[in-house]
Design brief:
This protein is mainly α. Helices cover about 65% and strands about 0% of the residues. A two-stranded antiparallel ribbon has the order 1-2.
Length: about 210
């Protein structure tokens, strides 16, 4: 009975809500010249999606909700577009930057790097095994990731924190660590994330440090 209860525990939604609020704050802290659209436009839409995620996520462990997946897709798309635009503006600004501009640009690059980690963590979380509601049904073995705990044949299920860890390690080590990608889409997404992280670290941060 204890194992069954653990198997059907819900994936805590507040974990992702806290992280997303942090991303919104990072976007609001970007310098004006690194924001292509009106400052509060994208964060405002993202906050609305955050509220919609709370409303559309069923209050049970096992569920399938197309509306919720659409909300997650819209949220990821909004954050990714805002982050990609800021990265492009940071790279352009670094070309003609002087010593006085370097600290703010370096801090902006750190914010973009962190946001990139969050975006891919959300993608992994909502993609693996059909999403958090479907993973707990125990009817589909076609998972995108293999965690060490799952090899022990227990009822353990990953939550958003575990996918955040996967995203952080992939962005810093540029390769998987203890968690293995199983599907081709997971491998391609991890490859894209590693390349983007390398771009931010090697190009943006190195240029800013060189100016300093």
């Amino acid at each position: 009975m204890l194992l069954a209860n653990k198997h059907h525990d819900r994936d805590p939604l507040w974990h992702i809500q806290v992280v997303l609020l942090g991303v919104i704050i990072l976007q609001l802290l970007l310098p004006e010249q690194l924001v292509a659209l009106p400052r509060f436009l994208m964060p405002g839409f993202e906050f609305l999606c955050l509220i919609a995620l709370q409303i559309t996520t069923p209050k049970r462990a096992v569920f399938v909700s197309k509306v919720r997946r659409i909300v997650v897709f819209a949220l990821v798309a909004l954050i990714a577009v805002a982050n990609a635009t800021s990265l492009q503006l940071v790279i352009a600004a670094l070309i003609g930057a002087d010593r006085a501009d370097a600290p703010s640009l370096l801090l902006s690059a750190v914010g973009i790097y962190i946001t990139n980690i969050v975006v891919f963590a959300i993608i992994y979380w909502d993609m693996d095994g059909g999403g958090p509601g479907h993973r707990r049904s125990g009817t589909d073995d076609q998972n995108d990731f293999l965690y060490p705990q799952q090899q022990a044949k227990t009822h353990w299920q990953p939550t958003f924190v575990d996918y955040m860890y996967v995203s952080i390690t992939n962005a810093t080590a540029f390769s998987p660590t203890d968690t293995l990608p199983l599907s081709r889409r997971a491998k391609m997404l991890m490859a894209i994330q590693a390349v983007l992280s390398l771009l931010v670290v090697a190009v943006v941060a190195a240029r800013a440090i060189n100016i300093l």
